[in-house]
Design goal:
mainly alpha, 3 helices
């Protein structure tokens, strides 16, 4: 994407969105790593139930936040479309298109993390049942 254009009212969303997506990517993968360890060890459920329960609670929280973020990204996209139509011609159309594509891409990343988070929750439920 082109450098930030400070005439764009959404330009400061870029570093913020980057950081949010990065943090939730790390969070989902940490849950994945923990679930994978549980799957590999197949420990007796009683011995590890408290940890699995805590991991499950964290996973549910991450899923809820990711679902809320999808709604937020949809609103950002809606506002971008409205605002860019009204902006003076000093903001290049190519820049506007790239900015909108950027938000679309980051929303896709969040949606994919949401799918991963839901899948991890199901895997953890399976481990609880198996154990």
């Amino acid at each position: 994407m082109a450098p930030l254009d400070l005439k764009d009212p959404f330009c400061m969303h870029v570093p913020l969105i980057d950081e949010i997506v990065k943090l939730y990517d790390q969070s989902v993968w940490r849950i994945r790593d923990a679930v994978r360890e549980i799957e590999k060890s197949r420990v007796e459920i009683g011995a590890n139930f408290e940890n699995m329960n805590e991991l499950s609670r964290h996973g549910v929280h991450v899923t809820e936040v990711l679902e809320a973020m999808v709604g937020t990204f949809l609103k950002i996209q809606e506002q971008q479309r409205r605002v860019y139509v009204c902006l003076p011609a000093e903001i290049d159309k190519t820049y506007q298109e790239q900015a909108q594509e950027y938000v679309s891409f980051q929303m896709l990343m969040i949606q994919n993390l949401l799918l991963r988070s839901k899948s991890l929750y199901e895997r953890l439920k399976t481990e609880t049942t198996v154990g």
